[in-house]
Structure formats: C-alpha cells, structure tokens
Amino acid sequence: MPLDLLIEIGTEDLPARYLSPLAGALTRGIEGGLQRRGVALGAVRSFATPRRLAVLITGVAETQPEQKQEKLGPAVAAAFKDGQPTPAALGFARSCGVEFSAVGQKDGKLHFARSVPGEPTAQLLPAIFEETLKQMDELVPKRMRWGSGEETFVRPVAWLLCLLGGEIVPLRRFGLEAARVTYGHRFHAPEAIALSSPADYEDALRQAKVWADVATRRDEIEHQIKTKAALLGGHARITPDLLDEVTALVEWPVVIAGEMEARFMRLPPEVIVATVETNQRYFTLFSDEQHTRLLPCFITISNIESRDVAQVISGNERVVRPRLSDALFFWDQDLKQPLAAYADKLAQSTFQKDLGSIADKVERVRKLIAQIVAALPKATTELAALADRAAALAKCDLVTKVVYEFPELQGLMGGYYATHGGEPDGVALAIREHYLPTQQGTPIPSSPAGQLVSLADKLDSLAGIFAIGQKPTASKDPYALRRAAAGALRILIEGELDVDLRALLQSALELQPAGKRDASVADDLWSFCLERLRSYCLDRGATAEAFEAVRATGVSVPLDFERRLQALLRFLPSPEAASLAAADKRARNILRQAGIETTAAVRTDRFEVAAEQALYAELQRVAAQVAPLRAACDYTGTLAALAALKPPVDAFFEAVMVMADDPDVRANRLALLAQLDALCRDVADLSLLPG
Q: CB–CB of 45/26 below 8 Å?
C-alpha cells in the first residue's frame, strides 16, 4: 500500500540566500535516492521557512521491487586449469555465497546473477538521508558546529521529523533521533505539534502560524503589500529579488507601514530606494504605477502579530531615519560644487593598474567618440559636442560621497549632479544612461549622445583588458567583458549606428597605454565580439546556418550584419532559397574540385548548349538589377532578384556537363559558375544554408 513520506529538518534561523537552494537539495536528494533504488513514488512537494526545510512525497511504495544482483568474476581463461576451477574461480564463488556449480559465464568472464527481495523503504531512508545531507553541505562553504558534537550544518539543528505513513522512521543525525514532532511559530505557537500522518503537516503548521509552502507564502506577502499600498493611495515597488528575500525571512507575514520625514524627499528617489530596499528590505511606495513619484512612506513585513503595532512601526521608522539622514548629508555635501569640479580627483583613482587612472580612461573615451562621430554619416557637430561633454563628466560621480556609499547608483547620480550644476539636459541624460545596457534585456541608452558615450566606454574597456592579456576565460570574466561586448553590439544594432565595429576596436586598441596592440589581439577581440553577436542573433530566432552564412561575407558593420541576416531569414522559407543553396553548393564543389578560383570573363562564343546562354543572360540581368539594390542596402530586394535565377540554374545543371573534355569549353563553364557563386555570396554565403 503506498504511503506518504515526510522529512523535516528543524533549525535555528537560516540565511535567506540559502533557503531555496537547501530546500531544493533536500527535495532532490530524497526523491532521487528513492528513484535510484527503484521505489515507486507519487507527487513531491518542498517546504521551507527560516526555521525548517521539509519534503513531502505521496504514494511511496512500502518496499523496493525485487532486486537483481549481478557480479562478474575473473576471465574464463584464468578460471580453469586442466578442466578444474582455479583458486581465483573458487574465491569468486565464495564471494557470491554459492557453490562453484551455480556460477555461469558472460562476455568471457565468470558471471553470477540472482534476484533478491527488495528492502523495506523505511530501511533505505537512513542511507538516502545521509547522501542528501552531503549534497546539501556542498551548497554551504562555511557551516556551523554547535554543542559538543562534531557534526556541522548551515545552522544548528533543533529537531528531526520523519514519518512514513503513520510510523516514525528513526533517522539519527546531529545528536538527534527523528520523531513525529514539529514546531510552529517561535512566539505564537512554540509548543510541540505531534503529527499522526504526513498529510497533516501543512494544515497543522498553518494553524500554528506558519506558512510552510514558499510559493503560497510569497503570494500572501505580495497580496498584503498591494492591499496595504492601495489603502495608502500608492503603488508598491515589488522587485522579484526583494520579494524572494523577504519571503525567506518570515514564517507568518504581517504587513506594516511606516513614514519617512518630509525632508528626505529632497533626495533623488533612487537614493531612498537604495537605502530602504537594499539596506532595510522595506518596500517603497509611489503615487503612480510607473514608479516615478515617490511617496514618504514604506511597507515592511513583520514575522509576528504585535499587540502594540505602533511600537513596531516606530521602531522601523527609527531604524531607517539615520540611514536616510546620512544619505541626505552626503547629497548636500556633493552639491556644494558642480560635477565638473570632481574631475581633478579622477587622476588619483585607478581604472586598472596597467591602463592608468579613470581620468586616462575618460580621455581615451573622448578620442574614441570623436572617431565614431567622424564615421557616422549623419552625425552633427552639436551631437559631437554633447557627447564629448557628457564623456568628460560621466565618471565624475565615482568620487562623490553618495556613490561611494551606494556604488550601484553610479551614472544615475552623475545625471542628477549635472542637472543641478546647470549642464544641458542632453548631457545629464547621456551621463545617466552611459552604463546601459546593464544586462541582457535592459534597454540601451535612449539618447544619441548616451549611446556614443556608452559605446566608447565599453569599447575602451574591451580593448584595454584584451591588450594586457586578461581576456575572459571559460569560468571567469572579472571585468564583465562579455556584457560589455553584448552591450556595444546592441547599441550599434538597436541604435542604428552604421559604423564598422572592427575598425573601432582597432582604434580603441591603438589608444591603449600598455599591452599588446598588434593584429593578433585585434583578431582575438573581433572573434570575441562575433561570438557575442552570434548569441544575440540566435537568442532572437536566427538559425546557426543563417548566422554563419552572413558571417562568411566578412561584413564587420553590426547594423549591416543585422540587415543582411533579417533579409535572409525572410528569404529562407521560399522554395527558391533551398534551390539556390543547393545549386551554389554544387557550383562551389565543382570549382573547388577543379582547383581554380576563376575570375576569367565568360565568352559567349564558347557556349554549346542553350542552357548556358540562358543562364549567362539571366546572370547579367540579375547582376545589373542587384547593383543599385546593394548600394541601397536593400538585401530583401537583392535576394528576391536572386530568386529569379532558380529556373535557369536548374536547367543548366540538368543539361550541361561542366567538366567537358574541351579545356576551353570547360574553363568557360567554370567561369560561368564563378559568376553564379559570386552573386550567391552577395548578401550571404548561400552555400552554407540547408538545401
């Protein structure tokens, strides 16, 4: 009869960051251990609160199925001598607990197999539990030891519970023996709770003021926050990370609201959010759903229903007040001089020991911006001046007091200081945005000046770190160069900056003060960026074959690469695409086997078959049609024009033997195929496509 299994480890308060990983490891360990032993089981649920980790599995078989034991012994050649079993053969039989006559042979060796009854599941659980604890220990590099024992865990273990059906499974660990007892909320229901069956677990804890299920507790917290925010006339800022962390900190969530003094509203909203959310794990409120107008109040989640809520509110307000007071002091101090006044301090701040100070980096970024602007067809002197000024000031906030206290606000604070210092709005916005995109999925800078500063900043970091030989490895990327390369590519493509990235990388390398700046480093850097471009394109639905087809053209302008790729992806579903790909593969193979890269002109007087003339005429027509399309970067139109080659190409290969005996005829046909191949590489190398 299937039974329910419940295992719970009761602890002192667990660190929030380990709660989910440890709960998952416990669940996977017990479930996997049973499955490896062939024990049938049903649904699996995981539970976790700051004081417990538990797993509940329904429909667990009482015993293993019958087990087949199999053992291989010495080679048959070594098992007999003069027709009699050798000592090695007899020893193998004894190790199997049988007479030698019961031993068989398999794959040239002695072999013994038998079936034995499965063990009761209750007897398997101690070993499974030990395996699981080892897996859990691997997640926590620093574990605690308590009392007089030598065993360790992330926090001291207070109780163990293990029930299979209604019976206790006597697991022994941490100086404890498992029982049927669990415990509710530390203050609201501290008494022991004896469970008659695993199915009672969640309801019994709920009555004892514990939301044991993480997802349910998380939903309850979110509901309470939103309800309280609505009562306060605002909208709570609820980030997934903060909600997860608060969920891991409480067993019985109770929402509480507090107020912030009006004087703190002079601070930029991001400073208050950083103070309240990051340091205190409180939730901020805004008057609008876009979270742009901050309200002078906050919401927090308590782990207890207090008899004197006013005292709890006062305590939370008292804790946050000095932090906001410090932030306000730093803000006021920073505003005593304009942002540009901080530039002198950048010379004393090191960017990287081999690459100089932050001031040195700023000058390289400004020079690189000038080169980018010169390469942009439609750049204006106004944009150049705006981007240069923003670049000159973009790093100044790194030496301000607020950014020293809140490093995550770099860039944002520079934008505020620039505005307060009277800088143009475009300069302030570019400074604010120049770290974007910060990660995959976040937006690129919205302003052209911000895009230029961000792009140049990222290219300088890429070139500098590659120059000094510290490019990322498979496991380490301390300078976040993968993110920088991906961000630069997104700015070039999504910002529609029609510039040559390979040339920009070479320029950035030449500006570096140290390290290798030769062609090999430039090639490595370009290959690194191409791999990021590959990931970017494939993540957005491109096929690997289509990417490689465009890559084969050697184009190094990411925006042009994107245009070619999108045109190719639209062309691929058509029947002409597969036909042309197959024809170009065939043409390329013939040219390769001929051992020549022919650029000879085609002579019409050497045509012997009408299909040759027809293909030649169509090639000339299509080439003339494609020329203006190519000049206009109309790759969709170019591929549509190439589609017209399908009928004459099919007819040519049907009627013509390319490798004719006459060398002049053969050379002429090869030249014709070379023209076809060149057209098929115009937008992308069609021979690399399926077809």
A: no
- Report the 10 Å Cβ neighbour count for 580: 26
Sign of the Cα pseudo-torsion (337, 343, 348, 349, in order): positive
SS (H, E, C) 32-43: HHHHHCCCCCCC
Q: DSSP for 251-313?
A: SS-EEEEEE--GGGGGS-HHHHHIIIIIIH--EEEESSTTS-SEEEEEEEEESS--S-HHHHH
Which domains are seen in the chain, by residue range?
3-64+121-207 (3.30.70), 67-116 (no CATH), 214-334 (no CATH), 351-540 (1.10.3210), 575-688 (1.10.730)
Return d(Cα 400, Cα 330) in angstroms, integer: 8
Would you say the pTM of this structure is higher than 0.85? no
Distance CA 137, CA 134 (A): 5
Three-state SS for 53?
Answer: strand
- pLDDT of residue 352 exceeding 70, the answer is yes
pLDDT digit string (tens) for 289-319? 988 899 999 999 999 999 889 999 999 999 9
Q: 564, 560, 542: which is closest to 642 by C-alpha?
A: 564
Residue that has been written with the tokens 């002192």 in this structure: 12
Q: Please give the Cα distance from 506 to 459 (Å, whole number).
A: 10
Buried/exposed code over 267-278 (b: 16+ C-beta within 10 A; e: otherwise): bbbbbbbbbbbe
Separation between Cα atoms, residue 504 and residue 524, nearest integer Å: 14
SS3 476: coil
Task: Read off φ and ψ for residue 501, nearest 5 degrees.
Answer: -65, -40
pLDDT in tens, 387-397: 999 999 999 99
C-alpha to C-alpha distances, 265 to 234, 279, 428, 507, nearest whole angstrom: 16, 18, 21, 45
Is-contact 193 181, C-beta < 8 A?
A: yes
pLDDT tens-digit readout, 45-80: 999 999 999 999 999 999 998 878 788 888 888 888
Q: Read out DSSP for 208-239? A: TT----HHHHHHHHHHHHHHHHHHTTSEE---
Q: What is the DSSP string of 350-381?
A: EEETTTEEHHHHHHHHHHHHHHHHHH-TT--H
H or E segment to which residue 80 belongs: strand 80-81
> At 383, which helix (H) or strand (E)?
helix 381-393
Q: How many CB atoms lie within 10 A of CB 104?
A: 10
Evaluate whether 180 touches 158 at the Cβ level (below 8 Å). Answer: no
Rounded CA-CA distance 255/297 in Å is: 13
Give residues with Cβ within 8 angstroms of 538, minimum separation 6.
544, 547
Confidence check: pLDDT of 600 > 80 = no
- DSSP per-residue string spanning 84-97: EE-HHHHHHHHHHT
For residue 346, the tally of other CB atoms under 10 A from its CB is 19
Q: Take residue 524 and report the two structure tokens written for it.
A: 């490595």
Q: At 288, is the pLDDT very low, low, confident or very high (cuts 50, 70, 90)?
A: very high
Question: Taking every pair of C-alpha atoms in the chain, what is the biggest distance, in angstroms?
Answer: 104
Query: Beta strand 3-11 with 157-164: parallel, antiparallel or unpaired?
Result: antiparallel
Alpha carbon distances (Å) from 396 to 73, 579, 585? 75, 58, 56
CA distances from 97 to 85, 112, 117, 223, 402 (A): 16, 10, 16, 64, 76
How far is residue 549's CA from residue 502's CA, in Å, rounded to a whole number?
19
